[in-house]
């Protein structure tokens, strides 16, 4: 319990630090939020009105205090650009980002775990000789290139999958749930998710493989072999379970990392997501929106980290002992 | 031609710096003045606008041959705007562009705003041009209701800008659009000069050939707002003009024509105009459009819509004459009133907007209102807007000019290359935003066979702006020399792949009535000519580095 509280306080501190850094970072960035309106803003009077409206006429200290107190109440402010509450703007696309991230992570990790375990088992064979370079190559391939290749093949050549967006044009849905569970949504999700999964699979695969190599040296594996168990049973039931723990942590952290880091895939496939939102917000100097979106990503990352820590703590007695010591 | 253009301009443009130079009284015997400092040419970053960046590189290369030290600096748009627009004394040279818009079909908006000295401080005249003769003619053309007489004045203004080379104009790009001719009847598209086939008239007129009655078009811009009192992004305006009607609209010939108005009649003194509303017009919620709504739409901007305020400021009084007729009284005759006011201001329903405006707190404007029903009276009704994905409009069958399509669906597609594949696969059937290489589009269309590509000259233009507040750009001869050194033909071919026409005026050749024919050829160019102009004006090349004329020191606020 004490450990839990300690970690919780730690988490809040991290969030506050990030929020503060974000606040000052965007305000020291070159450019002004007025620039986003430049083509239409002509008079000094109009500029001043905008500055007042955005609260930029207040001192930096005042602005910071307002920002923090609003944040405590869950209010991320009003987007300069969209003139809507930041939470509303972010929440419109956040589910898409989470779905894309989770789908691709699950594909990547399922594949990575199985393939990693297999490659460890077949160490030194020709399978490894082909497999490892292949994994490293796909991992190193730029996402946009991979995405364009997939588009060229699956959308434009064969016409199997749609090339952009999250839904076919003009389709109506009774609810958000009906929309994301529809075949239409999934067919739009397929290409971006697979592109992202290919990019993400390298880490769990290599991690799994190296853990497995360690575990396979251990005595209980020798014991299992002596018992005459099948290869599958030894690799999957005995060795893999023990090698999984670090991979699980990487998965949790991967969620946070990937939610905001999908700009490239979102752009290639015109997928509505938080990465695109972020890029726009930064280039339009929309401080509240950029802060809000970054903060949201940080929150996911920190919370996932927290959950990973806690589960680790519960699952592995060695961590518990170390924490106490 | 001016009687003595150089002399007059020197006097008006650089009186201050000349005075400073005289005061400095350098010995007249000196061979040359100060060396010209290192000049920075600002451009959009290469990745964001490759054509512009490449043009900047070509220009810098040419100028280096004149003995100038020029550095091209690419930066994102907000930073560029910040440097050029908000800190007007601090930059030397920048690449810039003016976009084509329907209301720019009347030359007034660009002719007046870009160069009139009243917009020098914070308006469009960011280069700091000041020419009393220009100001006078620019004001006079506004008061000239006779088109032929006004044309003479507009020509004169184009000449002055050419003589002074206030900008070094580069090109009017060609716009390329495409559509699936098996879905849409090609003979029902309408070309609007400067805007191509992507315009209000095509959308309201184009006829489907088969079962596909939804137009699916694309934009690479994320939308900002859909609000009748807010001029937000470029793509946003495609939507607002379909939902909200206007008294007049800019027609396919570039001139304003009555739309929601049945008739528009000017008084003989051109100080008032009587407008009669069409019969039986309805808002999308079924209530009738009244003269009260008209009055409201033209008065609300004064207090609540800062971006529309300039367009209604010239109205002194609006009088409702009867159930269908309204008279606008103007402070002075205004030749651009139809284009810049009657064809610009959106008609918004009073019963929806009045309560919303009344609820605004101090300092807020109509721009911050999110009216989600978006009730207008136009040929399309708002259906929905899914952020980063699409906007869906439904055809308004009750409109007096009902569209022939069922729905107008704008997809946000960021990947330019993907739009070509989408057009071929049917995910798009009207390519309304294509910034990629036009040759690729033409190749794709040829390979497909079902796609029509339509090109047209843009109302907008690409140019290089000199900061006239700073030497050496306050010297007309220097600007003329620099402009002469630019190889526009090379830029047109290399940077724009041939998909552009040379420019030398703010009035595009797309506006055939107002454009001064042949003005692009009136600018003599060539490297040798540039060197001659510089030598004649006293600039000296020493050790490969260009110096100011004898006795001239480089003085300006840094």
Can you describe this structure?
The complex is a heterodimer of chains A (325) and B (558). Mean pLDDT of chain A is 81; it is low at 38-42. Chain A has 325 residues and is an all-alpha fold. The two termini of chain A are 15 Å apart. In chain A, helix 4 packs across helix 14. Chain A contains 15 helices and no strands. Chain B is α+β, with helices and mostly antiparallel strands and 558 residues long. In chain B, strands 1, 2, 3, 4, 15, 16, 17 and 18 form an eight-stranded mixed β-sheet that branches. In chain B, a hairpin with a 5-residue loop joins strand 8 (261-266) and strand 9. Chain B has helices spanning 5-13, 15-24, 50-65, 77-85, 108-115, 132-143, 147-164, 200-205, 234-243, 291-304, 309-312, 337-342, 350-358, 416-425, 438-448, 476-485, 488-494, 527-536; strands at 39-44, 70-75, 93-98, 167-180, 214-219, 248-250, 256-258, 261-266, 272-277, 315-320, 325-330, 380-386, 390-395, 407-412, 430-431, 451-457, 461-466, 500-502, 540-542, 545-547. Chain B contains 18 helices and 20 strands. Chains A and B meet through helix 2, helix 4, helix 6, helix 12 and helix 13 of A and helix 4, strand 14 and helix 14 of B.
Please tag this protein with its features.
heterodimer; A: 325 residues; mainly alpha; 15 helices; 0% strand; B: 558 residues; alpha+beta; eight-stranded mixed beta sheet; four-stranded mixed beta sheet; 18 helices; 20 strands; 32% helix; 20% strand; globular; disordered N terminus
Quick structural gist:
The complex is a heterodimer of chains A (325) and B (558). Chain A has 325 residues and is an all-alpha fold. Helix content of chain A is 75%, strand content 0%.
- N→C terminal distance of chain A: 15 Å
Share of helix of chain A, binned: over 70%
Number of strands of chain B: 20
Strand content of chain A: under 5%
**H/E series of chain A, N to C?**
HHHHHHHHHHHHHHH
Largest sheet of chain B: 8 strands, mixed
- Classify the beta-strand content of chain B into a percent band: 15-25%
Number of helices in the DSSP assignment of chain B:
18
What is the arithmetic mean of pLDDT of chain A?
Answer: 81
Shape of chain B: globular
Helix content, binned percent of chain B: 25-40%
**Largest interchain contact:** A-B, 53 and 51 residues
In DSSP terms (H or I, runs of 4 or more residues), the helix count of chain A works out at: 15
State the shape of chain A: globular
